[in-house]
Amino acid sequence: MYKNAQTDARGQTGIVSSVATIKDVAKAAGVSFKTVSRVVNGEKRVGPEARERVNQAIRELGYKPSLAARQLAGQRSYLIGLVLLGSGISYISRMMIAMGSACRDKGYNLITATLDYHQHMASDIVSINFSARPDCVILTPPFCNDQRILEHFERANIAVVRVAAVTPGYGLTVPVNEEPCALELMRHLIGLGHKRIGMIAPPLPLRASEARLVAYRKAVAEAGLEEDPALVIRGDFSFAAGVSATTSLLALPQRPTAIFASGDEMAAGVLAEAARLGYRVPDDLAVAGFDDSPIARMVFPPITTVHQPVRDIARAAVEAAINPDFKPQPFDYKLIIRGSTDGSRQHCLEPYPF
Amino acid sequence: MYKNAQTDARGQTGIVSSVATIKDVAKAAGVSFKTVSRVVNGEKRVGPEARERVNQAIRELGYKPSLAARQLAGQRSYLIGLVLLGSGISYISRMMIAMGSACRDKGYNLITATLDYHQHMASDIVSINFSARPDCVILTPPFCNDQRILEHFERANIAVVRVAAVTPGYGLTVPVNEEPCALELMRHLIGLGHKRIGMIAPPLPLRASEARLVAYRKAVAEAGLEEDPALVIRGDFSFAAGVSATTSLLALPQRPTAIFASGDEMAAGVLAEAARLGYRVPDDLAVAGFDDSPIARMVFPPITTVHQPVRDIARAAVEAAINPDFKPQPFDYKLIIRGSTDGSRQHCLEPYPF
DNA sequence: TTGTAGGCGTTATCAA
DNA sequence: TTGATAACGCCTACAA
User: Given strand B286-288, what is the order of strands in its sheet?
Assistant: First the structure.
């Protein structure tokens, strides 16, 4: 930390707190402030000894470039906006944490806006307002597929990265493919001997998560199971949706012996309603979710699910936000088998991998 | 959105995207840009008609002041830093959402840093680094009681607001008092006839949450119940801690018939372990938590708990961050009785109140 | 390889 | 009640 040039009793610089500027560093290093700028920005054309002197001065003064000044003078804001759903607790915190650290790693800052989905749909204006003017805004489902929001940022001339988008439109898309692992999950259930499997599908077809339903159908078909439309109910990813779908599914004349919920919160709802009705999981009813959100391991039995590589997705999104030419690699989804399908497994006590 | 002065076919300003500056507004309103600045900043000394013309120009041009420029020229950054624990999913997302919207309401932006507690304790430097230079940093437990962190920000000359702090030190404290409601919760359990109540206490005495244990002891004493130290086990607020404490408590020669966990995730651990061991909740074992985090309603039975007024706390913290003279009012904690103590209550399906 | 001039969009100061 | 002018700290040009 730099102090103003007030000499104190120890003959050192004083404690009147201030912040070192690029000129202070330049003076201390005996170079022009432009040279300091070059060092800070990692430009090549700096003599090695000048660079060393500058770096030392930076360390000594605790110099940190002013974001505000860089924003104003340069063209970049070093800010990335993130828009995500203002509900569904576990998903948003994972994304926030992952995006935040991905941004920090790249020298960027994350500004977050959470949006209520119903409120947004009901309103005729796009209420997202980043007064901080980020270089880029990252949109996650369901907003990444919202044409109005895309146009909003296009008009504002702000770059957009769309995570798991499925519709065409403005911005760069970071694609995901959930189908293979969802298929693996379904084969796991079928391999356990289940013949009638209920599905709590995503709310709308126009989402990447629809792949979970597609996988369900493929698996049912490939195993030659009966394709009963009554076994498929759509839900809005909430706990309540899981509960109510389960009430319906278990009331069917031929009830399913397993339920695949396309989100862990809904799967928790399945578990809760099953418990209320006295079904034992997994013996009477096997349950599977999707996401591997923290809730999946805080219920009993813990939920078999598909782990979303949120960190990798976040890193790719930030990378794409900074470098428009970035080509993301396919992400590594992973089947996690737990007690809700396999009775021999009990609590999952490992710390949650953010 | 303001467009640069390129006349298009319709005779309107063109579509070369740019952003309106204060000078553009001044030109459009026929005043000096300083007058615009006065209007934007809500200063008094502006003529009513000038003000009206400026406001209209602002609307027409879609003018938004540049945060970067304000930061550079003014003394405020319009940024508030938030430091919170990088684990315990539900708590952090609630805080983030609440702080974020509280900041937005005040025209500030929120920058977030999540810190791993163990990593922080093991490291000899404070690794929080807000390159965005916020005006103020809000610290939540357990970091609000960390002397090193306080000194770090004091040296950096950054204001600090400490939410629920109990130790003295640098910065403003937003105090909370959890004892009355924790007492109410204990009385509820005792009122149900429980004589031996297990307690899963907070990890360390030096926290505001210690009030939960204090309340436990008071309630036990005032009801004349046996004060058995074996009934009190400390936990680190994790699901796993809830599980392991429950294993111990239920193995006692005289097992408790109710367990008060000082956090909902731990209470979920109690529920899970009780289920594994075949105890029925609440008939064989009543369970209560604290926080009213989302997890409390996504398990079966849903958990009786104390609702933390996170929104109010967040608002107060932001208010204190902006205005050092702000005096927060006591917060309104609330007992929420659910199925884990009252068998007549089933799922809680209301949308979560952020 | 290094340095100088100019400007980014706002607020602060002082004058009109 | 208004307005001109000088910062703020840095980056982009261009020049040496």
Answer: B232-234, B197-201, B258-261, B286-288
Q: Which residues of chain B have pLDDT under 70?
A: 1-18, 354
Q: Quote the CA–CA distance of B181 and B317 in Å, as a whole number.
A: 21
User: Is any atom of strand C within 7 angstroms of residue B23's beta carbon?
Assistant: yes
Whats the size of chain A, residue-wise? 354
- B74 CB and strand C closer than 7 A: yes
Residues 320-349 of chain B with CB under 8 A from chain A are: 346-347, 349
What is the C-alpha to C-alpha distance for residues B254 and B241, in angstroms, rounded to an integer? Answer: 21
Q: What residue has token string 């389960």?
A: A246
Predicted pLDDT of residue A278: 96
Cβ contact B309:B156 at 8 Å: no
Beta-carbon-side half-sphere exposure of residue B69 (alpha carbons within 13 Å): 9
Alpha-carbon gap, residue B180 to B65, rounded angstroms: 46
Q: Is the distance between the Cβ of B327 and the closest atom of strand D smaller than 7 Å?
A: no
Test A298 with B239 for CB contact under 8 angstroms. yes
Report CB contact under 8 Å: A68, B67.
Answer: yes
Say how far apart CA B130 and CA B136 lie, in whole Å: 10
B105-128 pLDDT tens trace:
998 999 998 898 999 999 999 988
- Tell me the nearest-neighbour CA distance from B219 into chain A, angstroms: 29
Q: Tell me the pLDDT of chain A (354 aa) as tens digits.
A: 333 333 322 223 333 456 889 998 998 888 889 999 999 988 887 888 888 999 999 998 888 899 999 999 987 889 999 998 877 777 888 899 899 999 988 889 999 998 989 999 999 999 888 888 899 999 999 999 999 999 999 988 899 999 999 999 999 999 999 999 999 999 999 999 999 999 999 999 999 999 999 999 999 999 999 999 999 999 999 999 999 999 999 999 999 999 999 999 999 999 999 999 999 999 999 999 999 999 999 999 999 999 999 999 999 999 999 998 999 999 999 999 999 999 998 898 887 776
Amino acid of residue B322: I
Helix (H) or strand (E) holding A213: helix A210-222
| Neighbour-count burial for B18-56, b at 16+ CB within 10 Å, e otherwise | ebbbbebbbbbbebeeebbbbbbeeeeebeeebbebbee
Residues of B (107-146) whose Cβ lies below 8 Å from A: 107, 109-114, 129, 131-133
The two three-digit tokens of residue B119, written as one number:
């990593």
- Based on the number of CB atoms within 10 Å of its own CB, is A300 exposed (0-12), middle (13-18) or buried (19 or more)? buried
CA-CA distance, A284 to A257, in Å (whole number)?
7
Tell me how far apart the alpha carbons of residues A218 and A212 are, in angstroms, rounded to a whole number.
10
Scanning every strand, the nucleotide with its C1' closest to A26's CA turns out to be: C3
Nearest residue to A243 (alpha-carbon basis) of A287, A188, A184:
A287
pLDDT at B17 (0 to 100): 52
Burial class (CB in 10 A: 0-12, 13-18, 19+), A131: middle
In contact, B201 and B234? CB cutoff 8 Å? yes
**How many whole angstroms separate alpha carbon B116 and alpha carbon A204?**
37
Q: Which residue is nearest to the C1' sugar atom of D9, using CA?
A: A69
DSSP string, B11-35: SSB---B----HHHHHHHHTS-HHH
Q: What is the DSSP letter of B257?
A: S
